[in-house]
Design goal:
Mean pLDDT: 90
Largest sheet: 5 strands, mixed
Strand content: 25-35%
Radius of gyration: 12 Å
Number of strands: 5
Number of domains: 1
Order of helices and strands: HEEEEHHEHH
Helix content: 25-40%
Oligomer: single chain
Low-confidence stretches: none
Structural class: alpha+beta
Strand order of the largest sheet: 3-2-1-4-5
CATH topology: Nonspecific Lipid-transfer Protein, Chain A
CATH architecture: 2-Layer Sandwich
Shape: globular
């Protein structure tokens, strides 16, 4: 498991308001589950069903965080796959910046 990816997302999730649902990130072989259905975001590596699942590579994630890859372009080119609640996917920006 890539602890730096997990820790980074956990830190970001703790800084922002609850996202209003659950999102599962599948980044290479790392799973990061963000449960924002309560009054704060709770991050774990639980492999549960989520309202929205986002799959990508660690490389694409880093490129999006540094601004080298536009998130919309990443989705259109297949570097990022999103399934489920698209409105939750839009809130992911707050976890990335």
């Amino acid at each position: 498991m890539n602890d730096s990816i997990f820790n980074e997302l956990q830190n970001k999730a703790n800084e922002v308001d609850a996202i209003g649902g659950t999102i599962k990130f599948v980044i290479d072989d790392t799973i990061v589950f963000v449960d924002g259905s309560g009054n704060k975001n709770v991050v774990s590596n639980s492999n549960e069903d989520a309202d929205c699942t986002i799959s990508t590579s660690a490389t694409a994630l880093k490129d999006m965080q540094t601004g080298d890859l536009n998130p919309m372009t990443a989705v259109m080119s297949g570097k990022v796959k999103i399934s489920g609640d698209m409105s939750l996917a839009m809130k992911v920006q707050s976890l990335m910046s």
